[in-house]
């Protein structure tokens, strides 16, 4: 089993490319935005350059409409902004490992919930099924980006 590690600046180019290969499910990032997110994350970890996760707590300086939706409703939370696994690395348990590390870090910091969103439009059925297996439950829905996306907001109590 491959261990995860903190995301290092030298990983940024490859992980940014991985992010942008999945821009429909995540969102396209530029180099500076990726570095900013990595630097302010509650948790920013990767497994080689095959998978990574960015998660933020309620105090993050972040203006994502999805993050702000949770901030308006919960005083404390850890928000999964993005988790992605390279196509060639799928099925190796990378996403599960990253989430298990996130759950442990969130508990250690006194958090009681991890939240995220999954696209309904455009559909991200694989992510939806994965989050269901992890015990996430729907707590809301919203259209964002002028109706270009419809998302389900999910929560897992710790």
In the predicted model, the low-confidence regions spanning at least 5 consecutive residues are: none
The CATH class:
Alpha Beta
Side by side, the strands of the main sheet go: 1-2-3-4-5-7-6
Which structural class fits the helix and strand makeup?
Answer: alpha+beta
Instruction: Find the count of extended strands (DSSP E, 2+ residues).
Output: 7
Your description of this structure?
Helices cover 34% and strands 30% of the residues. It has five helices and seven strands; from the N terminus they run βααββαβαβαββ. It has a seven-stranded mixed beta sheet with strand order 1-2-3-4-5-7-6, sandwiched between helices. The protein has one domain (5-157): Aminopeptidase (3-Layer(aba) Sandwich), CATH 3.40.630. It is an alpha+beta fold and 158 residues long. The two termini are 24 Å apart. β4 (78-85), α4 (94-108) and β5 form a beta-alpha-beta unit.
Comma- or semicolon-separated keywords:
single chain; 158 residues; alpha+beta; Aminopeptidase; 7-stranded mixed beta sheet; acyltransferase activity, transferring groups other than amino-acyl groups; transferase; Acyl_CoA_acyltransferase; Bact_Acetyltransf
Summarize this entry quickly.
Residues 2-158 form the N-acetyltransferase domain. InterPro entries: Acyl_CoA_acyltransferase, Bact_Acetyltransf, GNAT_dom, UCP028520. Helix content is 34%, strand content 30%.
What is the fold's blueprint, element by element?
Elements: E1 5-6, H1 12-21, H2 31-40, E2 43-47, E3 51-57, H3 65-73, E4 78-85, H4 94-108, E5 113-121, H5 125-133, E6 137-144, E7 149-157
Parallel strand pairs: 4-5
Antiparallel strand pairs: 1-2, 2-3, 3-4, 5-7, 6-7
